[in-house]
Each structure stands twice: as C-alpha cells, then as structure tokens.
Amino acid sequence: AQSVAQPEDQVNVAEGNPLTVKCTYSVSGNPYLFWYVQYPNRGLQFLLKYITGDNLVKGSYGFEAEFNKSQTSFHLKKPSALVSDSALYFCAVRDVTGGYNKLIFGAGTRLAVHP
Amino acid sequence: EAGVTQSPTHLIKTRGQQATLRCSPISGHTSVYWYQQALGLGLQFLLWYDEGEERNRGNFPPRFSGRQFPNYSSELNVNALELEDSALYLCASSSGQGLNQPQHFGDGTRLSIL
C-alpha cells in the first residue's frame, strides 16, 4: 500500500535560517510526490511536485524539495525562512492503484518560524 | 484565474440532519475530488468525480454521496449526520486524470454537528 510519513509534528526555525521539513514514502511503482501548505482557516496550497527527472524540484515561494530514491525521501527545503512561512505542511503521494486517483497525505508538520 | 470555490464556508447542523456542500472547480478542470480533514484523523479521501461520473470512493459509509454536474461543479451530500462528521471538507480539482497534474484545493466547508 502507498503511504507517506512525516516524522516531525513540529519544526522550529529562526527567521533567516534554512529550513527542512522531512517526508518519507512507501510506494509500489514510480512515486508521484507533492507538497502542500495550509494556512489557518484555509485550504491546501500546492507548492511543488516530483514526477520524474531532476532530483531537486523547485516550487512556489522559494521552496524546493529533494527527491532521494535510495532513502525513499522527499524533504522540503528553503534556504532562508520567513516568519510568514509559519504554517502546516503536508507531503502527499498520488495513489492510482486499484482504480483510484487520490492523494494520500502525511499527518502534517507544523512549521514555526521565529523572528 | 479563479481558484476552486466552495460554499458555504461554515455549516452548522444537528445529528440526523442532512448537509449539502458545493464545489466549483477551476475553469477547464474536469476532475473533482472530495477530502475530509477531521481533527486527529488527518486528510482522508472521500470521492473522485470525472466527466460527470463517480470514479472511486474512499472508506466512508454510503450516507456520504455526491454528484458532478455537466458544468463539472460538484456537490457532496451527507445524510443522517453524526457527531463525528464534524470536519473541514475540502474539494480539489485537476486538469484531467493525468498523474502529473496537481490537485488544487478550495478553502473548504467547515461542518459542525451539534
């Protein structure tokens, strides 16, 4: 079965420092991976995706993610965090087995960026 | 380009009642997905519609149902509401069924059951 794990409930980082939000996956076949961000009382905003190709994927708002097949990881990164990046981040894998076409989400990681 | 729109923003019901939630996808998107985000349970897939047909559903009871209209908008119906149905219901749309197409989400309908 396809699954995604986000091992950290919360990540704290100082403004201006680099940030990493971790994600590991388990899939049969090729992984189709996504990162989303959720601000309070809002829906999910798409940040970036990995389908195939370069292992470093660039997305919105200065975020990027590194795909590592051997470690089955897809960590979200940003070189310099902003206070406005504070939000809930979800990693997701697309499951198309058994006729499905759905996203399976991790539990989410709350990012807190301190001034 | 307008994003995915959902209505109402909030909905308050009592146990046993029925709720209808509505979703308008991004223009040109034919696939609509519904997810439930309940406290402590995370984001769970509910339903997938494409070209007016229900393509698949998640592990939810039959009292969760919906439909997709010819203009690709969709509604989710929840019958015989229970307290545990209280959640944020998110609608998403994508351009076709392609694996490389991200799903774009609306801001959700918060359903509260009293």
Write the layout of secondary structure elements.
The complex is a heterodimer of chains A (115) and B (114).
Chain A: E1 3-5, E2 10-14, E3 19-21, E4 24-26, E5 33-38, E6 44-50, E7 56-58, E8 64-68, E9 73-78, E10 87-95, E11 102-105, E12 109-114
Parallel strand pairs in A: 2-12
Antiparallel strand pairs in A: 1-4, 3-9, 5-6, 5-10, 7-8, 8-9, 10-11, 10-12
Chain B: E1 5-7, E2 10-13, E3 19-24, E4 31-38, E5 42-50, E6 53-57, E7 64-68, E8 74-78, E9 87-94, E10 104-105, E11 109-113
Parallel strand pairs in B: 2-11
Antiparallel strand pairs in B: 1-3, 3-8, 4-5, 4-9, 5-6, 7-8, 9-10, 9-11
Structure description:
The complex is a heterodimer of chains A (115) and B (114). Chain A has 115 residues and is mainly β. Chain A is built from no helices and 12 strands. In chain A, the strands form 3 sheets. In chain A, strands 2, 5, 6, 10, 11 and 12 form a 6-stranded mixed β-sheet that branches. A 4-stranded antiparallel β-sheet of chain A has the order 3-9-8-7, with no helix packed on it. A two-stranded antiparallel ribbon of chain A has the order 1-4. In chain B, strands 2, 4, 5, 6, 9, 10 and 11 form a 7-stranded mixed β-sheet that branches. Chain B has a 4-stranded antiparallel β-sheet with strand order 1-3-8-7, with no helix packed on it. The termini of chain B are far apart. The model of chain B has no long low-confidence stretch (mean pLDDT 94). The interface between A and B is medium-sized, with 24 and 25 residues.
